[in-house]
Amino acid sequence: MSIENLHKIFNPHRVAVIGASDTPTSVGYTVLRNLVGSGFRGVVYPVNPKREAVQGIHAYKDVASLPNPPDLAVICTPAKTVPGLIRELGMAGTKGIVIISAGFREIGEEGRKLENQVLEEQAKFPGMRIIGPNCLGIIVPGISLNASFAAATPPKGHIGFISQSGALCTSVLDWAIDQGIGFSYFVSVGNMIDVTIADLIDYFGSQTETQSIILYIESITEAREFMSAARAFARTKPIVAFKSGRFAESAAAAASHTGAMAGVDAVYEAAFQRAGIERIFQIEDMFDCAELLARQQPPKGDRVAIVTNAGGPGVMTTDALIALGGHLAELSEETMQKLNEFLPPFWSHNNPVDVLGDAPPERYAKAIDVVAADPNVDAVFVILTPQAMTDSTGTARAVAEIAKKHKKPILGAWMGGRTVAEGMQILSENNIPCYTTPEKAVRAFMHLVSYARNLSLLHETPRDIPVSFSFDRQRLRGVFESLLTEGAEILTESVSKAFLEAYGIPVTKPYLARTADQAVEIAKRIGFPVVMKIHSPQITHKTDVGGVLLNIANEQAVREGFEKLVRRAQEKRPDAQILGCTVQQMVSYPNSFELIIGTKRDPVFGSVIMVGMGGVAAEVFRDYALALPPLNETLARRALESLKSWPLLRGYRGRPGVNIDKLIEVLMRFSYLVADYPEIKELDVNPLLVTPEDVIALDARVVVDRDILAHGVRPYAHLAIRPYPEEFVTERKLKDGTRVILRPIKPEDEPMWHELLASCSTQSIWFRFSYLFKQTTHEMAARYCFIDYDREMAIVAEVEEDGQRKLIGVGRLVADANHEVAEYAVLVADRWHGRGLGGLLTDYCLEVAKRWGIKKVVAETSKDNARMLATFRNRGFEFNEKADQDVVLVTKTIA
Question: CA dist 30 to 155, 476, 645, Å?
């Protein structure tokens, strides 16, 4: 869905309360009282068929009796009346509806039928949007709109609050009002039959008054839309999420190691990280975290300097910091010398910097100034305890003043009650977060660190590790489709490894022997030593039945091994069909490690990739990381770096590390395989042997989703994030015959993007961006190279000169939230002007827009940009030129 007409809900001029009541205990009473009593300046229509007036306000018997169509209708009547009311409101022209009424799918099948009836009625009126049912309602403090049955209206602020729990909303409101916390929007979403969390994130992102968003999530329904909206918002403003149900068990039994380890909560955690969402685990951190993230510059690291007037709190802060994974900064010699110059002789001479109990405000401020300037320090904690000589208010003023000099985060902990209250207020007014305990300050700071790391994932440039395929992936799909449809639910090791090998992942090839004699012949052919494994469609984990033998060195051992494996399998799994044993080369390298990589189909976020410590102890050590495909070099490396075993992989105490680049490439290839085959429900590669030279899959097992095989799915529906759109890669020629590759931009293109803009004249830059800059920055590149292909499409023109790839132009389409209108802009390097490249890019972008489902393309260009004006005119764009402006607006409807 789109965010169309959500402004009718959040900025209405006329509001109807259907089910308005004079009964103080009813929802209709509270909603009407809140609307009238909160100071809303619009028109309020009570609707009640039995009363002439409700709460002293003239009432109307039904929707048809209203003098004007309401922009927003709040429905408080019994569930069975709602479908009919939706029809009446649609006929009246109402576009915004909040259904507070309960009694829908939360009560069972009967309620679900009512929801379907509501949706059937809504479908008759295009553009109608519905929040709920079974919700608390909405509050927009900025226009004094309280269309809810909450007890009070919070003050105006900059936090957008979205909750799936109405009960939690009431508690949060009470708490927020008590703390003086304000909101831009406060929404209880209920059953979300129409307006989703993604819709609300998009809408809040379009409103400047929202500087951060808090989510209370029980479950996500539309993962792709949620991830797209969250990533778009989180690039510039923070999202904080509290996810309940952390320890819910998966409904389906897992057939693989990956399925067993990748639990529901771990997948949400991976999704939040990929979207740049900061997750909290305590409700009390909710507002502290949102305010901190919105007001403070993200730190470059987690190294903290502590300035305190008491040793004990300094130790407490250190303990809390280390327990949560932070680090105490090691102060430089220069910093230590500067502190020695003005601090009393008995100061701590270390970090934490104890300025002693008699410290006046000036001593505090000078110490903060010195440690904040230390390059080894990423943030400063200021701890104050109210001792006899302590001026807590004066110290707060001094800290606030010195903080203006530094960009690094400075956090305070003013420990005490009334004696420190004024100081805390001063710090807060100066945008310095202040807490009542050091532990709270540490917790908030570590959220800031985590947020910075997640944000960097959205902005970090991967190296361009070439992952090329020497085969036709479409042709290959035809080959494997027959194997997928004809085989069992769990594919054989041979077929599973064939998938991996086709995607360039090295494997040991297994050969099936149905008899001991065949096993001997195979072993002699491939060479000793060999590995033998039991072969049965019903036995997923071979080691569970003693079904693996290693280092078999001669013919006699092969014969004995065959009989032993078959006997063990028959004893432990008499129900299993034993087809024989596989024989494969024994691979053994010194300084090697066993990893596991796998994929699991999560019911919410689709395919998830796991990497971790492998072998038979994979589920014992549970050292693993999850990531959402598709993976690039940065994402693959981050997953590896999060493992406890990462230091071993890099090399530890004289032991050489493994080939990290090769391992990253294998993970990227694996993610391509996962993206290309939605039929793969689970896939284990365990063990994946990694060595200083190579990476090789020793065992693999694929679990197939029979339902998808039978019915199919739309492309990439099994992924929460749209992969690189290879369908838009093409080769074209300029008028002079120059071959040009047109393709969507990639994060790896950042270096070439910088070169492209550096080659452009100031006039070309002005025509494209409408402002001038001295040079491009990584932050700019993050905006233009790191894009969500569901929302934006930038087509670059690439050529090869002297063996070097270069970008010579880029055309960009940015779709609106409704995915109906796209803004277009184009840039061509000056050296390539006059060769038809601007027209070529425009033609192809219009073609992409049509395939992308866009209905209209709009663009703005300067009246002086003759080339682009001619390009648009030749392609049938409509011109809207205003005499008093230097900009021409052009529009083209896509047929």
Answer: 19, 63, 57
